[in-house]
Fold this sequence. Notes:
Radius of gyration: 26 Å
Shape: globular
Number of strands: 35
Number of helices: 16
Oligomer: single chain
Amino acid sequence: MAHVAFDIGGTFTDFVLVDPSDGRTVTHKVSSTPDDPSRAVAEGLPVLLEKAGVQPQAVQHLLHATTVATNAIIQRKGARTALITTRGFRDVLILGRQKRYETYDLHLTKPAPLIPREQIFEVTERVSYEGEVLKPLDMADLATTLARVAEGGYEAIAVAFLHAYANPAHERAVGRALAEQMPGAAVSLSVDVSPKLREYERTNTTVANSFVKPLVSQYVKRLAETFAAQGLSAEFSIMQSNGGLVSPDLAQDYPIRIVESGPAAGVLLAAQVGKEIGAEHVLSFDMGGTTAKLGAIDDGEPVIAPTFEIDPVRYKKGSGLPINVPAVELIEIGAGGGSIAKVQDGAIRVGPESAGAEPGPACYGIGGTRPTVTDANLMLGYLNADYFNGGSMGLDRQAAEKALAEHVASPLGLSVAEAAWGVHLIATGNMDHALRVVSVERGRDPRRYAMVAFGGAGPVHASRIARSLGVARVVVPRAAGVGSAVGMLAADTRLDVSVSRIMAIEPASAEAIAGVYADLEQRLAADLARLKQATPPRYRRFAYMRHAGQGFEIHVDLPAGRIDAGFAAKAEQAFRAAYKTRYLTEDPGAAVEAVDWGLAAIIPRGAAKAAAAAIIPTGEPPTTRDAWFPEAGGFTPTQVWRREAIGPETSIQGPAIVEDAEATTLLLPGDTAKLGPGGHLIITIGKGA
């Protein structure tokens, strides 16, 4: 039985089919269809199955990563949404946080809320941070408010009351009233979506969930119709931001959990490749057609953050829209093959605007006239105009040259080659800076890390970034051009639940801690029942803890087993160890408290992880073409290898280019490449000429 994964990106939709019985892997790429992303799936799936010689009924599992929810939030193209909140707190979304993400920026712009103030409604009620009802829910006031909401024609409604995480009774009452009076609306309660403290983050997360709920629901239904029309009855799972898979109905209820699904899948691939080559510390570099995603794997595991931000400004914390759900830690920037280059203030700028799939880079010949990174890489000789996307697309070199000449070379008085090199270098520098944020600025020494580079454009830029950062090894996985789709095959089903309960960690806390986890287990049981999985899950406890008096917390893995009188001491010991590892200091006399408590249920899906088939090189000799290497004086005759021609004993010396159907890899002068475990191409970074 085969497993199929597909990832919808801004420019291409990537497919991969794996047969676990023999390790056979078949890949396919089609242009994305921004007007209706499901159309690219409908067009690409039959071609993939035909290439693989697999009948639809032989597909056991369909895995999917999507940017549908992300794009809707960034572009503000979600449902018309109302927010119902506690009287006196109508402006929580508008005020956000007092702290400025850039202290001295006089022109700083705060992230705009997803909904305007006129779509926010108040109800009289009040609960304390300890859960005490200070002011009962005013049912007459609620009835008046719901009547106003009903008249407003809202598709979606979010409910976020002050301190509802401590006592959900009032939100539950509103939820019941909405179900009776507005049964067709997409309703989200903060106690279901994000029952955690910090009102701005919790409220924004709940509103975002409602904002994309109708859109994601329609999209998932269209996919189901596509599968049925093509005779596919396989189990269908969707990637979440935390790197785990979930069923479509849970994704429709909590679409905020799938906002970062595509990037998360890529980090899973990097972690899997790291294990195969024996690297516990890995930097993940995924560059596609629209964006570049950069993450890290520490001690063999992807780093999971409790929150993330959508569309931040220059990687600054607090500059984006905060989302209070677990997500693989990464940075996403507008730097892809389709990123548009222009001259601004006498200098070359690249991105974040992208040509996308429509009209695409100029060299695609489908309407694009502005130069992109792909156009620059073609003019530099890095890309093969006759073998792009495995030869399924021809690239128009003259169109790329014209676009670069008109928009970059002429305004700056440069040759087209110099303009193309400038675009390539600026794009590389943007990603170099982002990777420094992921590594150096977060306490990671890049010299201790291997870099796993994938995506259609990632391997072209990876070696130069690695050399700048001091990374010694770059790994280009098999099927690197569809890396995020491959990464999904390594994913397990995972559900996370959490709740805020500020609690001192002391022996007397054991009973209260046991009560918190009993509630979390009950919440998980309801979601697990909807998955209909026969395999029992394994559970993982964690908490976000701090020294009493501190303002922020750190993630701490808690021990398994019975929560008895000695559990608090074990939890405190785990916190002190994690604190010392992170900050290289400790305060043995300071009291410890926990703020958020979490529980994850993980159901392994080992069947989808296929062993790599044996590498049998074709023996095809390399060809030669001119490519631009400033280290060698400009355009240089360069060996060009087909990836399938490389055998286990082949050693490739840079400058060189390695082409496969989905991606192109660039080796700089001084670099050396050989095949490693799993058939991955391992580049040893030299010091240059």
